[in-house]
Amino acid sequence: MRSFSKLAAFVLLAPLALAAPSSGLETRATIDTSSHCGQWDTVTAGQYTMYLDQWGSSGATSGSDCASLTSLSGTTIAWKTTWTWTGGSGVKSFTNVGLNSGLNKQLSALTTIPATWTWSQSSSGTVVADVAFDIFTSATSGGSNANEIMIWLANYNAGPISATYNSDGTPAPKASSVSIAGKTWSVLVQIVMPHCN
């Protein structure tokens, strides 16, 4: 797995476009915009890598997931994901874009992670998906993933997951109504999933 920090769309499967702020006049980069459908396909563009990461695809009775980069301009990257998973339960794939530079910093050294996200989702039927900022931490610089911090920006019938649940089956937050940057959040805790190590 990639160390310390990774921008990700935790996809039970939502397409999204990620954009980080940038300054100055920029030119659009030439990138691989072809469709990739392999279980572990990767495409690198500038300081980013798109990962198909279909680690749960065997849980579906049928289907596929394909993704392609659509643009890269400075620090702004966009991609799309299409899928046709049917049957089974749980995560089928985890299409995401990871940042490859500026990693291996202590959490205490991070004061901001400036990013702008734009995403859309269209489907006929019920979709189970989320869009998230996904950060992995380690006890040492470049070490194995020890903790995962997910900041869910959109939830399409996907959960969230928690170590504890209320009597009605809903996740029990460790803290509720936490205000950060003018938004209200719930904080949930869950053990690191095996695929994150």
Describe this structure in words.
The protein has 197 residues and is mainly beta. Helices cover 0% and strands 35% of the residues. It is built from no helices and twelve strands. It has strands at residues 5-6, 16-19, 42-45, 48-51, 65-73, 76-83, 96-99, 116-119, 129-137, 147-156, 175-180, 183-187. It has a four-stranded antiparallel beta sheet with strand order 5-6-2-8, with no helix packed on it. Strands 1-9-10 form a three-stranded antiparallel beta sheet, with no helix packed on it. A three-stranded antiparallel beta sheet has the order 3-4-7, with no helix packed on it. A hairpin with a 2-residue loop joins strand 3 (42-45) and strand 4. The relative contact order is 0.23. Mean pLDDT is 79; it is low at 1-27.
Present the secondary structure layout:
Layout (H helix, E strand, L loop, with lengths): L4 E2 L9 E4 L22 E4 L2 E4 L13 E9 L2 E8 L12 E4 L16 E4 L9 E9 L9 E10 L18 E6 L2 E5 L10
Antiparallel strand pairs: 1-9, 2-6, 2-8, 3-4, 4-7, 5-6, 9-10, 11-12
